[in-house]
UniProtKB/TrEMBL annotation:
GO terms for molecular function: cyclic-guanylate-specific phosphodiesterase activity. Residues 510-643 form the GGDEF domain. NCBIfam families: GGDEF. Residues 652-906 form the EAL domain. Its cofactor is Mg(2+). It is an enzyme of class 3 (hydrolase). It comes from Granulosicoccus antarcticus IMCC3135. This is cyclic-guanylate-specific phosphodiesterase. Gene3D superfamilies: 3.30.450.40, 3.30.70.270, EAL domain (3.20.20.450), PAS domain (3.30.450.20). PANTHER family: BIOFILM ARCHITECTURE MAINTENANCE PROTEIN MBAA (PTHR44757:SF2), DIGUANYLATE CYCLASE DGCP (PTHR44757).
């Protein structure tokens, strides 16, 4: 907008809000009123001393006033010249000014402000000068294409960055009427712009100057992202000593991918010819220059990356050949400056007295790599390197951070040395801190990124490994055979130990037992409190378990929360059970971690040798089978292996494998069972029930495969298929007698817990064109009792859309009146077990009656499932149940048989022919 004002060569301009308050004021107008621009901002015309008759109008002269003209322009919604205003036609002029009012809109097209531009019509010289300049601009435009062709050819020559910057500045002077040119580029961290190239007498003084965002001409254009023309009479506070001799400046942003990467400045030392018309050409040159700069930056970055990759390869080779830790570490630090784009590398060591001393320091200053002066020991103790050595942990300091782990004089040194982003890592040797390696980057550059820190971490790790060469064999052996967290033997060591023990010795067979343990409740701790707490818990568990065993026995961590034990020298089953009970009891007391009391238990499987096997794989498999079944029996159990158990587990594995095939081949079918309204006797809904059509075994009921699907993580895929198939079938019935029946679908717990569950349901309904009120979702109490807030949110989303919600098998879980009040529900389904009991109970004293009264009080409908006899049906009708479902009316049937079943049920209550005729 400022550019438009400058182009118009207007004397004054202001921007007002819709209540006539000044938002932006021209310095010339402020000067004419004897006020500062700051004092005018936020006030209206009357408050800054403009006469009332000019603001509110003069009826004698027929002048409507500024405010009326402002309002007319806003109402018109387009630029309004004062002379063309309906309010001004025929009225006399109160002042010799030509005024244009232009409404300003936001990004949504709403008028939010008004630009008022005025100029003195007596200034004919200025008017003619404008005309001349406009003509010159038109003539200049004709030559733009050829100029831009030359510019494009010259800038796309794969020049290095420094040469390219100079070339762009020279190009500006050659192809425009500018007499000087400057290139300002955004620094790497994006915190300031720096003059990187210049043509003209100011070159030496300007190069290297820095301007933050919003400061100076470069900073202003960076902030506003717009081209601007400035001279010493209009620029105000943005005219800085950078340009002492220039009388005019054109400033153009360099933009790539909507990001400002720099600013291009054109200057003129005289007033004779205006360079304002050069902005259009300069913007076109800037577009080409920005692309050329970005290409050059990418090429420079690629070349630097290749160079660093080669340096990293060389460094890896030198690390593998380290023999003298002190001498070779110096070489490592020196090569780090080539491997990672840093400005310094420092290595401190822990000497034989246990104190820190600076050993080597390398720095890169103006691309020259040289040794740096070492810090004295007392200052080293105040650095981040000392903290790393004391804690054995990595540390990172961002470019603008004063880290509390360093002293104030280290902060001062950082400021003096221009140190910024820092990464420091301990170097270990023989399990102890050998020293610390630190890399640093200049403050004006970006922080070290994750990839660079990972490369540094790799180098440090390699250095640590190399420094431990004299003890490498034992360290590697221990690491390969022990769990790093608990320090227990790992699976590999366990298997080697068991295999060695099972080998025949002196004709005597080895006897003993293998126990396989899995922690109960550990996953909940890990998921809710984090892996850090989980790791601490595993260490404490390992400690307690170790205290229950003899020195000749072996406890190992097999992975995750699984442990295994070898009990040697006892063939007694009673002794094995006694040890396993002792292990289980050791975990019964709570664990205290970070102020939290945590409880875990264990499920355990036992097998003995040689009775149950004589090789490692066989024994571990059988102990695992026993443990798995113990967990299925309710957790906290101890179970010994037998062959029946193995057969049962094998059957489950087979079902899981076949289920995966069934999902892939869509071997499932949906059967449908009607729900009958107790009052009308008419079918008012149906439930979709899944069956598995096995290619060899025929039809398989859900009770025989759903639990396996849940354990194997297949239930979500099956549940999605059921939902989609049921809704599709409902769409097929839309134009039939079944078109208004609501279809109920069961939802698995894990399926419901998915974050996108609600949107998936609604998407399926939209996809098949089925109204939401034709779908009813049945969820179990176990679902709604977990994470109640999230459950309410999901259910409310569905219910708001029109989907009905039912609680299935009500009364068989941990029923809670509170959740019944809080949850958005429509239906309670009474479990079949209560219906069976009803047959032997008095109606009013039955649990069914209690549930019905509860549902009635909460305004919920009820469905009794599993109704098989007339007596059950009549009692439910008497007690006021809403609907009935069960074999009494119909077994579940396939979709093509359902219309006939519904018709036959409805016919039971249809009026006699003579009644219909009447």
């Amino acid at each position: 907008m400022l550019q438009q004002i400058a182009d118009a060569q207007l004397t004054t301009f202001v921007i007002k809000d819709l209540e006539h308050r000044f938002l932006l004021v021209d310095q010339a107008l402020a000067d004419s009123l004897g006020l500062s621009v700051e004092k005018m901002i936020g006030r209206h015309d009357l408050e800054v001393g403009i006469p009332e008759r000019m603001v509110l109008g003069d009826s004698k002269l027929g002048f409507p006033g500024f405010w009326a003209l402002d309002d007319e322009a806003v109402k018109a919604g387009c630029p309004l010249h004062e002379a063309d205003s309906d309010l001004r036609k025929g009225s006399e002029s109160m002042y010799s000014a030509d005024t244009l009012r232009t409404p300003l809109r936001d990004k949504d097209g709403n008028i939010t402000a008004l630009l008022v531009q005025s100029r003195d019509v007596s200034d004919l010289i200025g008017l003619h000068q404008n005309l001349a300049e406009n003509r010159a601009t038109v003539e200049l435009q004709d030559g733009h294409l050829s100029v831009l062709g030359d510019v494009l050819t010259s800038l796309m020559q794969n020049l290095d960055l420094d040469t390219l910057f100079d070339h762009i500045a020279e190009t500006i002077v050659v192809h425009t009427r500018a007499q000087s040119a400057y290139i300002w580029m955004l620094n790497e961290a994006g915190c300031y712009m720096e003059a990187v190239a210049a043509v003209g007498p100011q070159k030496r003084a300007c190069l290297g100057l820095q301007r933050p965002r919003g400061q100076g001409i470069a900073g202003k254009v960076w902030e506003d992202r717009k081209s601007v023309f400035m001279d010493k009479t209009t620029v105000g506070r943005y005219w800085l000593p950078d340009y002492i001799y220039e009388q005019q400046l054109c400033c153009v942003p360099l933009i790539v991918d909507d990001d400002v990467i720099g600013v291009m400045v054109l200057g003129s030392f005289s007033w004779d010819v205006s360079i304002r018309p050069e902005i259009a050409l300069a913007e076109k040159i800037a577009n080409i220059a920005a692309i050329a700069i970005k290409n050059a930056q990418l090429m420079a970055s690629t070349q630097a990356e290749l160079s660093r990759s080669r340096a990293l390869s060389e460094l890896g080779s030198s690390l593998s050949a380290i023999s003298d830790p002190y001498a070779d570490t110096d070489a490592v630090c020196r090569k780090l400056l080539d491997t990672i784009d840093i400005n310094g590398a420092v290595f401190v060591v822990v000497n034989e007295h246990g104190t820190l001393e600076s050993y080597v320091a390398w720095g890169k200053l103006s691309q020259e790599i040289k040794r740096l002066v070492l810090l004295p020991a007392e200052m080293v103790a105040e650095t981040i390197c000392a903290w790393c050595c004391q804690t054995g942990e990595e540390a990172f300091i961002s470019r603008d951070q004063l880290d509390a782990r360093e002293s104030s004089r280290i902060h001062a040194m950082r400021d003096e040395m221009n140190y910024g982003s820092t990464s420091c890592m301990p170097v270990m040797s023989a399990g102890k801190v050998f020293g610390a390696l630190s890399i640093v980057r200049e403050r004006q550059r970006c922080d070290l990124n994750e990839r660079e820190i990972n490369v540094f971490r790799t180098v440090v790790n390699q250095l640590s490994a190399a420094l431990e060469r004299y003890d490498l064999h034992s360290a590697l052996h221990h690491q390969a055979n022990h769990d790093s967290l608990t320090k227990l033997p790992n699976r590999r060591q366990f298997e080697e130990e068991l295999s060695s023990y099972l080998e025949p010795k002196s004709g005597n067979d080895a006897v003993g037992a293998v126990m396989f343990m899995d922690l109960d409740g550990f996953k909940l701790v890990n998921d809710t409190l984090g892996h850090g707490v989980g790791d601490e818990l595993l260490k404490l568990v390992a400690c307690r378990l170790s205290g229950c065993l003899r020195s000749e026995d072996l406890l190992a961590r097999m992975g995750g929360d699984e442990f295994a034990v070898i009990i040697k020298g006892s063939q007694s089953l009673e002794y094995a059970v006694e040890i396993s009970t002792r292990l289980s009891d050791s975990l019964s007391k709570p664990f205290l971690i970070d102020g939290s009391s945590l409880n875990v238990g264990t499920s355990m499987g036992i097998c003995r040798f040689p009775e149950d096997g004589t090789n490692v794989d066989d024994l571990l498999r059988k102990a695992d089978v026993a443990m798995y079944q113990a967990k299925n029996n309710g957790k906290g159990q101890i179970l010994c292996f037998d062959q029946t158990l193995a057969t049962k587990v094998l059957k489950r594995v087979q079902i899981e494998y076949q289920l995966r095939q069934a999902i892939a081949e869509e071997q499932f079918e949906l059967f449908y069972q009607p729900k009958v309204n107790c009052q009308t006797g008419i079918v008012d809904g149906i439930e979709a029930l899944i069956r598995w059509r096995h290619p060899d075994k025929g039809l398989i009921a859900p009770a025989d495969f759903i639990s396996v699907a849940e354990e194997a993580g297949l239930i979500n895929a099956i549940g999605s298929w059921v939902l989609n198939e049921a809704v599709w079938q409902a769409s097929q019935w839309s134009d039939t007698a079944l078109g208004k029946l609501r279809i109920a679908v069961n939802i698995a717990a894990s399926q419901f817990q998915l974050e996108n569950f609600s949107s998936e349901v609604l998407d399926v309904l939209v996809h098949h064109g089925v109204p939401p009120d034709r779908l009813e979702l049945e969820v179990t109490e176990s679902i709604v009792m977990k994470n109640l807030d999230a459950v309410i949110t999901r259910l409310q989303t569905l219910r708001t859309a029109g989907v009905r919600i039912a609680i299935d098998d009500f009364g068989t879980g941990y029923s809670s009146l509170k959740y019944l009040q809080d949850l958005p529900l429509d239906v309670l389904k009474i479990d079949r077990s209560f219906i069976l009991r009803l047959q032997h109970e008095e109606c009013r004293q039955s649990l069914v009656n209690t549930i019905l009264l509860l549902a009635s009080g909460l305004g919920l409908e009820t469905v009794a499932e599993g109704v098989e006899t007339l007596e059950q049906k009549e009692k439910l009708v008497t007690l006021g149940c809403s609907s009935i479902q069960g074999f009494y009316y119909s077994v579940p049937v396939l979709a093509d048989a359902l219309p006939g079943v519904v018709e036959s049920i409805n016919a039971l209550v249809a009026p006699e022919p003579h009644q219909r005729a009447a």
